[in-house]
């Protein structure tokens, strides 16, 4: 049975790089809170544990990585099998949390070092591959142009994330105000019920005493 481990990453980080360990056919997922119409780039690399050297090696023959990206509405944005290392891309269609899941494609990890792998993962939100673009530049003017374009994209992404965060805060404030208002009205209704019940009890006791000629 697959184990699903959720690794919560910081919201709106332009670049999140880390590594984690997985076992045989173990799936691990990262949750990213992403604005709409935002390009997300992920780069990963697999290392295998070598029992003899007691270290992770750079290669893991016969292994690959299956990458799946979904939203909380079960919309599949990406589902693809990669090799030992690779880069995947997807664009968010709507704001909210996106689930990025990675799973090794081998069922014979025991023969590759005790069913233990190390996955290096770098998630970049709203960034293009600037190094690749610069490498293709033919002169300094193009290189500077690429850098300026990259900076403008980063500024645009920061503004987009700020607007998204502002909308989230506004929705949270409205929800809090509605909750406080409902609590206030419920307390007021409870008070009226208690007062009405007390008046009814007093009237019932008075009628009882009058009927028994005690007053």
From TrEMBL:
Keyword Cytoplasm on entry: no
Please list every transmembrane segment annotated in the UniProt record, as residue ranges.
183-200
Q: Which SMART domains match?
A: EMP24_GP25L
Which membrane topology describes this protein?
A: Single-pass type I membrane protein
Signal sequence, start to end = 1-17
Keyword entries, A-Z: Endoplasmic reticulum, Membrane, Signal, Transmembrane, Transmembrane helix
Q: Where is the GOLD domain?
A: 27-125
**UniProt KW Glycoprotein keyword:** no
Any Pfam family hit = EMP24_GP25L
Highest taxon in the source lineage:
Eukaryota
Localization, per the record, is:
Endoplasmic reticulum membrane; Membrane
- What family is this? Belongs to the EMP24/GP25L family.
Q: What is this protein called?
A: Transmembrane emp24 domain-containing protein 11
> Which gene is transcribed and translated to give this protein?
LOC101392097
